Amino acid sequence: MDAIFLQILNGLDKGGAYALIALGLTLVFGTLGVVNFAHGALFMLGAFCSVSFYKLLTLSKQVKDESITFFDAFKEQPYLEIWFGDYGTTIIDLAVPLSILFAIPVMLLIGLIMERGLIRHFYKRTHAEQILVTFGLAIVLQEVIKSFFGANPIPMPAPEIVSGSAPIGVLFGLGESVVYPWWRLIYLLFSGVVIAGVFAFLNMTTYGMVVRAGMMDRETVGLLGIDVERRFTVVFGLAAVVTGLAGVMYAPILPPDYHMGMDFLVLSFVVVVVGGMGSLGGAVAAGFLLGILQSFASMNEVKSIIPGIDQIIIYLVAVVILLVRPRGLLGRKGVMED
Amino acid sequence: MKTPTIKQDMLVMLIFSVVILTMPLWLEPLGANYPDLLQKFAIFGIFAVGYNILFGLTGYLSFGHAAFLGIGSYTAVWSLKLLTMNILPALLFSVLMSGLFALLIGFITLRRSGIYFSILTLAFAQMFYNLAYSVLTPITNGETGLQLARDDARVIDRLFSEAGEGLPSTDFFGLAMSGYSGFYICAVLLIIAFFISQRIFHSPFGTKLRAIKSNQTRMKYTGYSTRPYLLTAFVISGMYAGLAGGLMAATDPLAGAERMQWTASGEVVLMTILGGVGTLIGPLLGVGIIKYFENIFSALNEQALHQAFAFMPDWLANIMVFLTSPFVGEGWHLTLGALFVLIVVFLPGGIMQGIDLIKKRFSSPSKNSKTEHTSSEARLEKAPENGQ
Question: Which pLDDT value is given to residue A334?
């Protein structure tokens, strides 16, 4: 029972990341009709936003180490600590959550540049060509990051106050022994909030309404005198931000390295296809569903029955769903039908 | 489109064979005539030529061809371990095995088209890749990769001779698979592969595949069931990939799972696109360029750059080195990615389209702006609708 409970949490947690990435991917696909293989790179860029923000905060100066008296020792002390004392230390400790504020404008900018600079020339090209050009772009972004930050994963600390485990079992009457890392719980909560935010934006604001109308029928909205293109550019920026934030918060869970984007890209495409191309709700649902399935498949009890199932469950589900439900779980009629 | 006559085809084949077989000679000034690289040219050439039969003719973008490459490699190494160090059975088995898998995977994935097909093939390739790393370790030897050992069975070899000292090396009835003789074996296979692909391109079967690419719906209304044709093309290109994988194992008897990773599938797509999709010779050009520059660029380092720019004034040379150093050595992939983006943006038909443009410009200078326009337009028109 405990194990099952923990696996559900694990799955929700992983699913949160999948759902956020897939949500961004679907936004881009549903509005612009572009199959964006550089989407994983956006996730990776988000993670590196937090890395670079952390590096920025910990810019240090050599100071004399007073604790060592018998010879001249120097240690690195971040400027923030020198200037603000303990407040500075707290700020550095909170680097990852604070880098959200840093990541939002950066990712928005990256998204807008990407859309205006490259992607918009590909609206009318075939999907194959879109895949190819964004695949090339992903390689470029990945290599740029590699040349700046190196090839090794960079561990990022979660804030100290939430670095331990939460006695989550008590809440559900499962006893003290059932614990779960705080940061993962926060991630789950965070992904929920972001997803809710995106849906609120699309469903409750006029701007979002126009965007949704544009997704349904771009031409008619254009005929009504609305500049759809501009809105779609903004949506691309939004998708970049959502994906980037998923990356920022994921940094303490998985130390960012330059190819993490590619790893997640394949998964998130599978998630989108399972959820149904162009369906936002489908992407979110499929994200959580596949996350949970994956974490259950990696239980030892399951693995002993079907060896290797944890490695292929996601792809297997994708194959089965695509064959029996061609539109995916919640796919709309007429979107990418073939 | 006018189909060339048999005579023209034979002429092309003759020229092609001569060009390929004399590669060690004319690549010498480029510094690329050592056997290792030449073998790579030929092997990836086979891979790309086969991939082009699927992607170039039918427009179905498979992201999972690396799986067949891997299957071919594993099969070949097993044949080398169990039967004989002669590569003939190894290659036969790898072609057969990957053909079988292609039949199975193609049967399932070809139910869908467009992006779904890409994702499905990708999903299968990833499954194979993950399995090769985990559960299939007895067959694939996991992360270490499948290697030869001295005390392997090698049943057929044992009939003729005792096991020698040390690791035996692969051969083709006495011809060693390393060095130039290895290249010539690969080259002959490439020529045969190219010949088959040329026959397919100019056959009614090839025409039908092109018809599927340009308008599958209409093709169906005409009364053709398109799936068998697609499946045949898929299996053929899978077998090509298997042959390439088998040759990889034959020249260097080691098969690792990373050969099946989806970036490996991406690489062959890249080569095909760079050269020119759907053209006969294009993919080979792509292979040549990518493999050549991979070798040259990744070997360069800052020192070599300083030497290259030595003729400039010092300050300018320093700037040039600073600008170019991220693109060479470790950063070769950056060059590759950037090149890829540029090609898809400006020259979606690849190098072959570029050559066509130049040809047209020289033949009728007055119409050049117009022809450029129409040829890129025509490409867009040809885009697969994939509607049913």
Answer: 60
CB proximity A136 to B under 8 Å: yes
CB contact under 8 A, B115 and A318: no
Beta-bridge partners for A61:
A77
Greater confidence (A214 vs B317) lies with: A214
Q: Which residues of A136-147 are buried (b: 16+ CB within 10 A; e: fewer)?
A: bbbbbbbbbbbb
Mean pLDDT of all residues belonging to chain A: 84
Which of B258, B263, B341, B347 to mutate to probe the A interface, most A CBs <10 Å?
A: B341
Q: Which residues in chain B come in under a pLDDT of 50?
A: 367-388
Tell me how close the Cα of B84 comes to any Cα of chain A, in angstroms.
Answer: 32
Which chain A residue has the Cα nearest residue B383? A126
Interacting residues of A47 by C-beta distance below 8 A, sequence separation 6+:
A247, A248, A250, A251, A254, A256, A260
Task: Find chain A residues with C-beta within 8 A of B380's C-beta.
Answer: 124-126
pLDDT digit string (tens) for A56-108? 888 777 777 777 667 777 777 777 777 777 777 777 778 888 888 889 999 99
Distance, in angstroms, between A319 CA and closest chain B CA?
Answer: 6
Question: What secondary structure does DSSP assign to A116-162, as a single string?
Answer: HHTGGGGTTS-HHHHHHHHHHHHHHHHHHHHHHH-SS----PPPGGG
* Higher pLDDT pick, A139 / A338: A139
Inter-chain CB proximity A129 and B344 less than 8 Å = yes
Inter-chain touch A322–B326, beta carbons under 8 Å: no
Report the distance separating Cα A219 and Cα B171, nearest Å.
Answer: 64
Residue A79 to chain B, least CA–CA distance (Å): 30
Predicted confidence band of residue A335 (pLDDT cuts 50, 70, 90): low
Minimum Cα–Cα distance from B335: chain A residue:
A140
Q: What pTM, to 2 d.p., does this model score? A: 0.83
Q: Tell me the domains of chain A and their CATH numbers.
A: 2-49+104-324 (1.10.3470)
- Identify the pLDDT of residue B253: 82
Q: Confirm whether the ipTM is greater than 0.90.
A: no
Q: Chains A and B: how many Cβ contacts under 8 Å? A: 129
